[in-house]
Amino acid sequence: MQRLIPVLNKDHVPLHLISVINTLLTAAKEISHRLHQGSLAGTLGSTLDENIQGETQKKLDVVSNQLIKNMLLETNLVRAVASEEEDDIVEGNPDAKYLVAYDPLDGSSNIDINGSVGTIFSIMEVPDHAAEGKDMFLQTGDEQVAAGYILYGPSSMLVMTTGQGVRMYTLDHSVGEFLLTVEQVTIPKDTQEFAINMANDRFWAPPIKKYVKDLLAGEEGPRGKRFNMRWNAAMVADVHRVLCRGGIFTYPADCRNLQKPCKLRLMYEANPMSYLVEQAGGRASTGYERIMSLQPTEIHQRVSVVMGSANEVSTCLGYHEEIKCDRFDA
Ligand code: F6P
Ligand code: MN
Predict the structure, then answer these.
(1) CA distance linking residue 185 with residue 246, whole number of Å
(2) Which one of 169, 176, 263, 288 has the fewest beta carbons within 10 angstroms of its own beta carbon?
(3) What distance in Å separates the CA atoms of residue 179 and residue 199, rounded to the nearest whole number?
(4) What range defines the domain where residue 297 resides?
(5) How many domains does the chain have?
(6) Which pTM value belongs to this model?
(7) Cβ-count burial of 180 within 10 angstroms (0-12 exposed, 13-18 middle, 19+ buried)?
(8) Closest residue to atom 8 of ligand 1, CA basis
């Protein structure tokens, strides 16, 4: 097994970028430790609770956000961060080169039930043109220079790409390092496993409704085979399964609330996960467009997501091409 830094050096990743990634990992190790401690760390539950010393307890997603933000900004290598937990970007060193968008604790409804959660990150460079403030972040997913997640499950794992494939690392608590455990992640092209929140079925648009109906029809249906379903309610955990053994993960637009038809966020959920999925040989789309080609207009903008095994995603996109209807997210 190899350590992280020699592996990245082999790929000619700039040293400052390695430092930014290592800083994220230092924060992740602390988050992993606190999650492992559970209630003992006094960070579960509501932000309104007080612990036995009379201190306000902070929810772990707030704590994680602060840890990551403070550590990244202290490096002086980061121009600004954009976080799911911050309304606006937070500026750092005006001369620095890197921008980091992150979801500090994805799937946070799983925290209080001791389920899997994760930290997702997307790293870009400050654009050459004279963008200021949040406009610096409004780059397509193709501009990412590194992206990945740390999954806090039975073991903590880093899954990352710098554009030369996807590697997986496992946190070895005895040495306090993420050690390389999968050199090259490849998503099988075909699958018989899908992930979607079926409770939203009645709110979906016709193409995704028909696609899932055909999956559920099994051997007797048009697909001619049985499909299994999995749903962790944490994108990190669901996409991790797809990267490990294939599958299709979707969170489509729906009409529950037409002001907010999509759930997942482009900049710190869909884009970094799409980068991993594509680098591992899969596909990632809104159903109509390739996610990483989208031009963002807001740092917190939401997007419909269909990603995973290449042939299965293509099949799903075929339904979107064939069944004409108005889009909820248009
Ligand atoms: O961050 C949003 C998120 O928690 C994802 O991690 C997850 O895939 C999804 O929402 C779960 O949504 P739902 O609550 O509809 O199952
Ligand atoms: Mn999330």
Answers:
(1) 11
(2) 176
(3) 38
(4) 193-322
(5) 2
(6) 0.96
(7) middle
(8) 235
